[in-house]
Design brief:
Length: 56
């Protein structure tokens, strides 16, 4: 998605450009952004007797 041509740009500027291009708005139209992630992996039991759970 992010091309090697943009490798010399800082990560924040690359993301800003991706957002403005996707939303089809001018660069000065994006005042700010927050990036949130969510773990989509299901929880899992682990340990010798499966006594621990890993979940987010």
């Amino acid at each position: 998605m992010l091309s090697a041509v943009e490798a010399d740009l800082p990560a924040a500027e690359t993301l800003r450009r991706l957002l403005t291009d996707t939303l089809q708005i001018p660069a000065d139209g994006l005042l700010g952004f927050d990036l949130n992630v969510y773990d989509t992996q299901p929880g899992a039991f682990f340990g010798p007797q499966r006594e621990f759970i890993a979940n987010s």
